[in-house]
């Protein structure tokens, strides 16, 4: 199996022993992205936007864009934030959004409010 580690210096470095993303053939597996500074500010819209921007930076390093995303997982600290997260997330997909699930979790790394991971495919 030929795998290539993808790293963008525009997105946060991994907080542990994992890569920002791994490319295998034409499929990119992007680790969950968070937004530390925005989470500390308490502005959930800014936090979600930064998470999506971080994903974009990593996708770009692999020669992909949001249009290449086929699957996303959103982890929320509070499901009451679902509508706001949906609004921010949806703005990144003009048409044919990817498959997705959203789950509420007890706690996220660095006590952020949202984390998003994706799988993207380049035809």
Plain-language structure description:
The chain has 123 residues and is α+β, with helices and mostly antiparallel strands. It has a single domain (3-121), classed as RutC-like (60s Ribosomal Protein L30, Chain: A). The protein has 3 helices and 6 strands. The chain has a 6-stranded mixed beta sheet with strand order 1-2-3-6-4-5, covered by helices on one side. A hairpin with a 2-residue loop joins strand 2 (21-24) and strand 3. The longest helix has 18 residues, at 44-61. It is globular, with a radius of gyration of 14 Å. This is RidA family protein. Belongs to the RutC family.
The oligomeric state of the chains shown is: single chain
Structural class given helices, strands, pairing? alpha+beta
- Poorly predicted tracts of residues: none
Q: What is the CATH H-level superfamily? A: RutC-like
CATH class: Alpha Beta
Question: What is the terminal separation in angstroms?
Answer: 18 Å
Q: What's the total count of β strands?
A: 6
- Along the chain, the helix and strand elements come as EEEHHEHEE
């Amino acid at each position: 199996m030929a795998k290539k580690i993808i790293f963008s210096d525009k997105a946060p470095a991994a907080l542990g022993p994992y890569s920002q993303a791994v490319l295998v053939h034409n499929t990119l597996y992007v680790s969950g992205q968070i937004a530390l500074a925005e989470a500390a500010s308490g502005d959930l819209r800014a936090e979600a936007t930064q998470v999506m921007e971080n994903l974009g930076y990593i996708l770009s390093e692999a020669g992909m864009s949001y249009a290449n995303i086929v699957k996303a997982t959103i982890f929320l600290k509070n499901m009451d934030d679902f509508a706001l997260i949906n609004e921010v997330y949806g703005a990144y997909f003009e048409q044919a959004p990817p498959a997705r699930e959203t789950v509420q979790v007890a706690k996220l790394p660095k006590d952020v409010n949202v984390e998003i991971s994706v799988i993207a495919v380049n035809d």
